[in-house]
Amino acid sequence: MSVTTRRTRLAAAALAAITAIGGLAACGNDDDKPAAGEKPAKLVVDTFGEFGYEELVKQYEKDTGIKVELRKTAQLAEYRPKLVRYLATGKGAADVTALEEGILNEFKPNARNWADLNPLVSDHSKEFLPWKWELGKAPDGRLLGLPTDVGSLAVCYRKDLFQAAGLPTERDQVSALWPDWKGFHDAGLKYKQGSGGKAFIDSITAVSNGVLFQGNGDLFYDKEDNIIADTSPAVKNAWDTATSMADISAKAQTWSPEWSGGFKQGTFAATFCPSWMLGIVSENSGAENKGKWDVASVPGGGGNWGGSWLAVPAQSKYPKEAAKLAEYLTNAKSQVEAFKAKGPLPTNLEALKNDAFISYTNEYFSNAPTGKIFGESVAKIQPIHLGPKHQAVKENALEPAMRAFESGQASKEKAWEQFTKDAKTQGAF
Amino acid sequence: MSLSATTAPPSPAAPPSPDVPSRRHRGRLFNRLDVKYSPYLYIAPFFLIFGAFGLYPMVRTAWMSLHDWDMIGEHTFIGLDNYTRLFADEYFWNALVNTFGIFALSTIPQLLLALFLANLLNRTFLRAKTFFRMAIFMPNVVSVAAVAIVFGMLFQREFGLFNWLLGLVGVDPVDWDGQRWSSWFAISTMVNWRWTGYNTLILLAGMQAIPKDLYEAAAIDGASPWRQFWQITLPMLKPTFTFVVILSTIGGMQLFTEPLLFANGNVLGGSQREFQTLAMYMYEMGITNLNTAGYGAAVAWAIFMIIVVVSLFNFLLVRRSAK
């Protein structure tokens, strides 16, 4: 066997392999759009956490004859990588995709991945909270998302534990304990004393969340998206307030097993509850703690943690129908239904005025009038400019540094140093 | 079509059927093609799959690492900038130290234990051999995520079993994911639990391939079992041991799932990155941060180069020390 023939054959085999790989890659391109006006057999909706769309979707199927598949992901941390994969590979995305505030901001610089909703739906700009509506737009004016909910803040507290520690239990009296953050800290110290040294709140990062989102000016970015994390007074204020509470903290990081387990064990007596958190608190506390939780107002006025939009990925084959579905899911009636089902707080002005919403009381939380409490706090929310990588700076720079201080691994100065250094790298975009 | 030819009664006087030579020729051609090309056909599936899922991603990653690559946006060619940045990146070196620390803590005790267990299982007097061999392999069958979740619970600060046990003997609870040593220890425990049995079986197989007469001759010469182990088992086990060491090196350098789940899925690996491994750092840069995918690709290639170097080093080390 001559060397040359062997070489040719090797080359042939290699060629065959390459063609096969090429073939595999070629399978990825099937972006044949259906003819205009063709009715889709099925639309897919991607949400995370609890949006309360189950019943609404069934109604939509009945009304339109279009099947709707609801894909739910429990945690935002698992949801985001999926979305990124869909966008990076150009396939797999749902027709209607829920975008949380942090994700939306991060995706804004690459707005082309999303359909512009302006020509697809009628003008709803006057129907929603104005600042919420504005945040759904890209810098170039494209409308990326229709508002779903806001995360207006409140404090969830355990009445039974408060009582045992000698604190008031009625929600108005409890709210009166903490007109400001100092009052909150004092109440915590009193609880600690009365309960024999038990922790009052879940973690100092939960406090910092609360303070950050009260909107006392720009946070990690200024209006031109320059990183100002190390000089921003609002961030410093959140830092100082939160770190001062280390002595009443259970050091249970939000979403960790210590945290979810802590609800049942009563390792902390209070936590910060945006409206969407109510479902999570009741889930974690279980049926045996029904009626032990109640809802009071947050120190220092209103604040906003989270909240989402519904967007249509540019890769959707049925952008028009998808936009119609998003329109339906965010209309006033749907938002009230979703709120009653799982707690996401309406952003549709009409929904916020709806009687069914205002008069709604939450059975699990000692029949607290959550509709009224959260509805009133929505008015106090100050819109904040978050900037493209707000979420990354908060989760990968600010909160780790706070935890390092909270657990005693680093001094306050060292932790602050860690934060300002990491904020620069995490915030770059 | 050839039925008539084969069933026709053989008659010596009849002339040979005209289609026989062409048939034989065709058969020979097929035979030649078969001999020549079939082997390639048989090994093709591996090369195709390797090409699609091994080679192509590697080449693509190398290409990405030369770019400022936004996962869902622009890509700009920047040459080797990502690699120069890597050398000055404190968190890259931190991840490297963590990876080597956990690697040492998990591989060294693990291989010693595996050697010890394999030697025990190799004893002729042992009863229920198959049972023990199966039992020791069981942890490896369990899904790594399940292992990490269960151990994560055991190592919890508040309600964890290990802290409870420590409490029984009067030791203060340890914040396992709060310090370097404790988190490394916890993660190494998971790795050891899962992989010791696997390595034991491979070493055992190596031991069984050693001819018995060597031991008999040594025993007659009066060598103790200990001496037999050092003078016969270990030297004869050299090739197997090299294999095991290299496999462990590759696994150890790519450690990802255990530390990630130990950190509740947070890719930073502890609030001060106490146990962020190289693979986690690659994930943070390449997947979590959308706009640094190119840099993440550079980290991936750095991991690859490190594995090559460390494997070579270990290979030489094992070969020399066993001489």
From TrEMBL, chain A:
Entry superkingdom: Bacteria
N-terminal signal peptide: 1-25
Compositionally biased spans, kind Basic and acidic residues: 411-429
One Pfam family this sequence matches: SBP_bac_8
Coiled coil: none
Region spans: Disordered: 408-429
InterPro entries: Bact_solute-bd_prot1, SBP
Keywords: Signal
Protein name in UniProt: ABC transporter substrate-binding protein
Naturally occurring in which organism (per UniProt): Micromonospora arborensis
UniProtKB/TrEMBL annotation, chain B:
Localisation per UniProt entry: Cell membrane
Keyword Transport: yes
Coiled coil: none
Protein name: ABC transporter permease
GO CC terms in record: plasma membrane
Species of origin: Micromonospora arborensis
Family named by the database record: Belongs to the binding-protein-dependent transport system permease family.
Ranges annotated as biased composition (Pro residues): 9-19
Pfam families listed in its UniProt record: BPD_transp_1 (PF00528)
InterPro entries assigned to the protein according to its UniProt record, in alphabetical order: ABC_transporter_permease, MetI-like, MetI-like_sf
GO biological process, one term: transmembrane transport
CDD domains, A to Z: TM_PBP2
Record key words, sorted: Cell membrane, Membrane, Transmembrane, Transmembrane helix, Transport
Residue ranges crossing the lipid bilayer per the database entry: 40-59, 91-118, 130-155, 184-205, 236-256, 295-318
Keyword Transmembrane applies: yes
